[in-house]
Design goal:
The protein has helices spanning about 5-15, 30-40, 50-60, 75-80, 90-105, 130-135, 140, 160-180, 200-205, 215-220, 225-230, and strands at about 20-25, 45, 65, 85-90, 110-115, 145-155, 190-195, 210-215. It has about 230 residues and is of the alpha/beta class.
Length: about 230
């Protein structure tokens, strides 16, 4: 099947439930992204800052770019002028840098707090108590150019669907608690970004409002030099 055919399948399935489909375009060519774009896709997710900045400069300006990978504070300045949503915010320090760069660009940048829900040491994210601590802090109250619009998480890489369901459910419970405690009157706090190709159906059942699909749309990824240098995040 073509990229357009794959995309149509997912859009029909995902967007019927009012869930946003993020096409994960990391390592994909501009031509492949344009095929998805011409088939109606407008939201694309990237993991690496250099690759993201290069693509934003060359591709249509009405694309909504999401940063879905781990973001280093010293790289925020390269995407601050155009990024639509930063998914993986996992520290107050990173939030403060995003706020600083957003202010320089005279804009407010939407962010998701990344929650650690997986039973894996390799995953990034904040513990539940760390999120509460950030939201209660004086430092957070001073931020004027970031908007926390929800939570993001990656489940354990396992075929145990019961475990994945529990992890996503716990995230939804946390989301509801934070919404009630900190964002009760804020309509913008509404996003739960969970679910990828292997577990997006479970994620949607457990309240996800955004799913990230890559290989299911574009086919098997071709690993490029962006992966080779870990500093290029």
């Amino acid at each position: 099947m073509s990229i357009a055919d794959n995309l149509k399948k997912y859009k029909t399935e995902v967007e019927t439930d009012n869930v946003k489909l993020i096409a994960v375009s990391k390592t994909q060519s501009n031509e492949a992204i344009l095929e998805a774009y011409n088939a109606g896709q407008r939201i694309f997710g990237e993991n690496h800052v250099q690759e993201l900045a290069d693509k934003e400069a060359e591709l249509p300006k009405d694309i909504e770019w999401h940063m879905i990978g781990h973001l280093q504070s010293n790289k925020v300045k390269y995407i601050a002028p155009f990024i639509s949503l930063i998914h993986g915010v996992d520290s107050l320090k990173l939030l403060q840098e995003i706020d600083k760069q957003a202010k320089k660009n005279k804009r407010v940048i939407d962010c998701l707090l990344q929650v650690y829900i997986a039973d894996e040491d390799t995953k990034f994210g904040l513990a539940y108590d760390e999120i509460i601590e950030i939201l209660r802090s004086e430092e957070f109250s001073k931020l004027e150019n970031v908007s926390i619009t929800g939570l993001m998480a990656i489940a354990t890489n396992t075929k145990n669907e019961k475990q994945i369901t529990i992890e996503f459910n716990e995230l939804k419970v946390l989301f509801d608690g934070i919404k009630h405690s900190f964002f009760k009157d804020d309509a913008y706090f509404k996003e739960i970004s969970t679910g990828m190709s292997a577990d997006y159906k479970i994620a949607i059942e457990e309240g996800s409002t955004m799913v990230r699909i890559g290989s299911g749309i574009f086919g098997k990824r071709i690993i490029k030099h962006f992966k080779a240098n870990p500093s290029e995040n």
